[in-house]
Amino acid sequence: MSQVSVASGENPEVHISEVGPRDGLQSTQRIMATADKLRWIGALHATGLREIEVGSFVPPRLLPQMADAAEVVAGARLLPGLTVMALVPNQKGAGAALAAGVHKLTLPVSASEAHSMANVRRTPLQMVDEVRAVVALRDAHDPAVGVEVGISTAFGCTLQGPVDEDDVIRLAVRCAEAGAQEVGLSDTTGYANPAQVRRLFRRLRAELGERAGAAHMHNTRGLGLANCLAAFEEGVTTFDASQAGLGGCPYAPGASGNVVTEDLVFMFEAMGVRTGVDLSLLMQAREALARGLPEEPLYGMTPEAGLPKGFAAEVARA
Ligand code: ZN
């Protein structure tokens, strides 16, 4: 489970869930070879990351980048202490992911009706039924496997525009009632701002308590880190991030994808918040990514600037 206690006090901790091999690789035009994916996932694991979303179980004709998801899960399972997570849009995907041996499933449930129909051809409420069915499937297969939901387009939608905050919270509560152990909020389209993030996570945590899940922020408008900090200040302890900010829209040059893991780890460690991730090794892991996708632009301010002088020693003392 990704619940990490103590968000305040002497040694606050956060939990970084690396989603690059899924959220990042699903939006690149080139397909990374299975062996390269596993080399990269191994390098990420070596940094101390203990949860990695390694792929999604969707029809290969829709996302050929993810056609090898079962093989990637099998390889990632060999890494000690790693929670191997996969995205599944429905029961069929969940069945395949469970058969492949994932430790945790994540389902995207869109708060925007328009996005939900376009993405999965189901209304948000039909997706709640899907969550319930996936939980039942999981119970029959192995109750130890986690099921989490990310409420996508929680902060706005490119198709619908603004998304009603009451709808987001109501949907999150329904997903928890349907059996999801954690329900997080995703800024799928990079619309969120810190004030909105604080407001929505405060309401989510008031409704769901410990079952309020991760902040999944995109850096589309440069607010990824600010939004993560706002969520942290509301007590969120799990953050999704993608190495090198991999992803983004191939039709919008310069638009980056998820919040950059390297920058997020730097921010927290510099604040004295433990991530369990070795930043130097994290920077090195970019080489494995670059090797698998040589032409892909890699983002990140911290990797470009390098660590401040004396930073490692200071972090070790803290
Ligand atoms: Zn995303």
Ligands bound, unique:
zinc ion
- Major β-sheet profile: 8 strands, parallel
* Straight-line distance between termini: 27 Å
| Topology, number of strands | 8
Overall outline: globular
Class based on secondary structure composition and strand pairing: alpha/beta
Features of the shown structure:
318 residues; alpha/beta; TIM Barrel; eight-stranded parallel beta sheet; 13 helices; 8 strands; globular; binds zinc ion
How are the SSEs ordered, and which strands pair?
Layout: E1 15-18, H1 20-24, H2 34-46, E2 51-56, H3 69-76, E3 83-87, H4 91-100, E4 104-110, H5 113-120, H6 124-141, E5 146-152, H7 165-177, E6 182-186, H8 194-208, E7 212-216, H9 224-233, E8 238-241, H10 261-270, H11 279-292, H12 301-305, H13 311-317
Parallel strand pairs: 1-8, 2-3, 3-4, 4-5, 5-6, 6-7, 7-8
Helix pairs in contact: 2-3, 2-11, 3-4, 4-6, 7-8, 8-9
Brief description of this entry?
The protein has 318 residues and is an alpha/beta fold. Helices cover 43% and strands 14% of the residues.
Explained architecture:
By secondary structure, the chain is α/β, with parallel strands linked by helices. It has a single domain, classed as Aldolase class I (TIM Barrel, Alpha-Beta Barrel), CATH 3.20.20.70. 43% of the residues lie in helices and 14% in strands. The protein contains 13 helices and eight strands. The chain has helices at residues 20-24, 34-46, 69-76, 91-100, 113-120, 124-141, 165-177, 194-208, 224-233, 261-270, 279-292, 301-305, 311-317, and strands spanning 15-18, 51-56, 83-87, 104-110, 146-152, 182-186, 212-216, 238-241. It has an eight-stranded parallel beta sheet. Helix 9 (224-233) links the parallel strand 7 (212-216) and strand 8 (238-241). Helix 4 (91-100) packs parallel to helix 6 and helix 7 (165-177) packs parallel to helix 8. It is globular. The two termini are 27 Å apart. Residues 23, 186, 188, 216, 218, 258 line the site of zinc ion.
